[in-house]
Write a structure and sequence with these properties.
Layout: H1 2-6, E1 7-9, E2 16-18, E3 21-23, E4 27-30, H2 34-54, H3 59-67, H4 69-81, E5 86-91, H5 95-114, E6 120-129, H6 134-147, E7 153-159, H7 162-169, H8 174-177, H9 182-198
Helix pairs in contact: 2-4, 2-5
């Protein structure tokens, strides 16, 4: 299987990660983006369950069992990363990211069922928004319409800006790297929206 052969060991903690992976926040070259990790975990879970149902245990399935520790690691990673029992899903209004949103929501559902029954989706935050493009406008409207009354789509939109990429390169928070960057201003606006939403 592709992912059995192409996961990298993260030197920071020894976990297996997708490299590179696409992050809605950091762009195309991120190490172990949670969305990608979650989808890989789902693939491994399906392969293992299918082999059990069919009563077949091949070398490829054995490899998945060995590498499949990523399954529990990603669930643990996601649940440990949230301070409360809520998760905010960041979405880049691009077609592939939109398709992955439903997969991510299924992963959240599995975490809720298996690990944390209190886990809820606080809302969806649209990031890296190119507000001038028609595609961004169409997909933003699609997200808002699809989840209206089900999952909150936050009013704040985080714009795409080169300053975010630069701040990551220099290992600095965007607010520290450039106080006037539109993305940093949007994140501060989002913080206020969250405070108002949580009451």
């Amino acid at each position: 299987m592709f992912w059995v052969d192409n996961l990298w060991t993260d030197e920071r903690d020894g976990t297996l990660v997708a490299n590179p992976s696409h992050s809605p926040e950091h762009g195309e070259y991120s190490l172990g983006c949670s969305t990608v990790q979650a989808m890989i975990a789902e693939i491994f879970d399906i392969v293992i369950k299918a082999s059990e149902d069919l009563g077949k245990d091949t070398k490829e399935v054995a490899d998945v069992h060995v590498v499949g520790k990523i399954d529990q690691e990603i669930y643990q990673c996601i649940t440990n990363d949230i301070v409360t029992d809520e998760v905010i899903i960041t979405v880049n209004p691009q077609l592939l990211a939109m398709m992955g949103l439903q997969d991510f929501l299924r992963i959240v559902g599995k975490i809720k069922k298996r690990i944390n029954p209190k886990l809820e989706v606080a809302g969806i935050l649209l990031t890296m928004c190119e507000s001038r493009t028609t595609l961004c406008k169409v997909l933003t409207e699609e997200v808002t319409g699809s989840f209206q009354g089900k999952i909150k789509v936050f009013d704040t939109r985080i714009p795409a800006t080169v300053k975010v990429g630069e701040s990551i390169y220099y290992n600095m928070p965007i607010a520290q790297y450039s106080k006037k960057a539109s993305a940093g201003i949007a994140y501060r606006k989002f913080a206020k929206e969250i405070i108002a939403y949580e009451g």
